[in-house]
Write a structure and sequence with these properties.
By secondary structure, this protein is an all-alpha fold. It has helices spanning 6-22, 34-41, 45-57, 76-100, 103-122, 125-138, 144-153, 155-165, 168-186, 190-201, 204-214; strands at 31-32, 61-62, 69-71. The protein is built from 11 helices and 3 strands; from the N terminus they run αβααββαααααααα. A 3-stranded antiparallel sheet has the order 1-3-2.
Length: 240
């Protein structure tokens, strides 16, 4: 058995499972068990159980005592609450950022857009979302507590974002919106920047209809049986 300190083992299991869940390598509804995960990570069940509890607090895993737990299906009611949280925190951060940013911040925003354009061409969705997050993180300069709160509480919205960026026209739209937002930042046009950000975040009604049509099994109101455990990658995501 791999020799981890208990805290380290829990952190490794938690971070790895969380990444698999957010990037849909573990699909919504997937059954996962403490025994199976402990064998996969070569650790005892204790850190696995602690990781499950941590993930359940983020509503990413539904823990059922004495049975296999499951990756939580995406709940659009929660998604809308997470967007409300993000919108209010990010607009507040953006107002301060517009007043206080410098050229290094602009350069970082430009770098993120360039990397997104490359990821778009390569259809590398994980890289695209990585730089999408880094783009928005720039606005939280000196407001890392707020950013960490978003990171820890918006897992359902993250999965919706991941699904939507798999559709190429959505990716192109996001790159264009980031470019427009960058121009507003450069001109220190706070009103326009806030309006662009609000529009950027407010696409859920259209997305909900589209995603439930394309991926009906992934949502909380699905009646289908959960799929088997799959660590095999994004090929498991059905697009038709």
């Amino acid at each position: 058995m791999t020799q981890y300190k208990t805290g380290n083992a829990q952190e490794v299991v938690y971070k790895t499972l969380r990444e698999h869940i957010l990037t849909l390598n573990l699909l919504p509804g997937t059954a996962i068990s403490e025994n199976e995960i402990s064998l996969r990570f070569d650790v005892s069940r204790t850190p696995v159980r602690e990781a499950f509890i941590a993930l359940s607090k983020e509503a990413l895993v539904t823990v059922t005592p004495q049975k296999s737990s499951t990756v939580s299906r995406i709940d659009f009611t929660r998604v809308k609450q997470e967007v409300f949280l993000r919108e209010n925190l990010e607009i507040a951060a953006l107002k301060r950022f517009i007043k206080n940013h410098d050229e290094s911040h602009v350069a970082e925003l430009e770098r993120c857009i360039q990397q997104q354009e490359k990821a778009c061409k390569d259809r590398n969705y994980e890289q695209f979302l990585k730089y999408d997050n880094l783009f928005h993180r720039v606005f939280f300069d000196n407001q890392m507590v707020a950013w960490e709160a978003l990171e820890n509480m918006c897992g359902h919205y993250y999965r919706v974002r991941f699904l939507t960026i798999r559709l190429l026209e959505v990716i192109n739209n996001l790159v264009q919106q980031h470019g427009e937002l960058l121009q507003a930042v450069k001109h220190k046009d706070s009103r326009k920047a806030q309006s662009l950000l609000e529009s950027h975040l407010h696409q859920l009604d259209t997305e909900e209809v589209m995603l439930k049509r394309l991926f009906p099994d992934y949502f909380a109101d699905s009646r289908d049986a959960p799929p088997v455990v799959d660590f095999g990658g994004l090929s498991a995501v059905r697009t038709k």
